[in-house]
Structures are given as C-alpha cells and as structure tokens.
Amino acid sequence: MSGKNRADIHVGAKVKIVLKKDQPTGKLTEGIVSRILTNSSHHPHGIKVMLEDGRVGRVQEIEKESANGTTGE
C-alpha cells in the first residue's frame, strides 16, 4: 500500500519512509509511526511522519497487518 493517503496511516503502523537525505537515491528506512505530520488528506510524494526513533520522512510503503495484528509481507 502506498503512503499517499493520510487515512491509510495510523500511529503504531509499520512503514517504510524515505528520509530527506535519501530522496536522491530512494533508500527506504523502516520503522513504526509515532506522529503523522502532514495535515492534508493526500500528498503526491507521501504523507510525512515521525518514527518512534525520531526520524522524519515521507511514507512510501505501509506494511499490511494480518487479523491478529502482526505484520505480514
């Protein structure tokens, strides 16, 4: 699932983001969302979030959650 729609992202979700410094290469960083920073419902480059470790970037992928709450790939 892409990270362009705010409604698809929630605090505690496991996501892959691109950090500002990694935008030229597209390198993804995985983490858990602690805050959603974009206020608009949609952003073409991905919703900006803060991860639990404090890193900030735009969501590129959202990990799917199974029925028992664990993530699956």
Topology overview:
Layout lengths: L13 E6 L8 E9 L11 E4 L4 E7 L1 E2 L5 E2 L1
Task: Describe it.
By secondary structure, this protein is an all-beta fold. The protein is built from no helices and 6 strands. The chain starts with 13 loop residues before the first strand and ends with a strand. It has strands spanning 14-19, 28-36, 48-51, 56-62, 64-65, 71-72. The protein is 0% helix and 41% strand. The strands form 2 sheets. A 4-stranded antiparallel beta barrel has the order 1-2-3-4. A two-stranded antiparallel ribbon has the order 5-6. The model has no long low-confidence stretch (mean pLDDT 91). Strand 1 and strand 2 (28-36) form a beta hairpin. It has one domain: SH3 type barrels, CATH 2.30.30.
What is the correct CATH architecture? Roll
The level 1 CATH classification is Mainly Beta
Major β-sheet annotation: 4 strands, antiparallel, barrel
String of helices and strands: EEEEEE
Major sheet: order of its strands?
1-2-3-4
Shape: globular
Strand content: 35-45%
Number of helices: 0
CATH fold descriptor = SH3 type barrels
Provide the domain count.
1
Please provide the count of β strands.
6
Given as residue ranges, the uncertain stretches (5+ residues, pLDDT < 50) are none
How far from one another are the termini? 11 Å
Secondary-structure-derived class:
mainly beta
Helical fraction: under 10%
Mean pLDDT across the residues is 91
Quick overview:
The protein has 73 residues and is an all-beta fold. The chain is 0% helix and 41% strand.
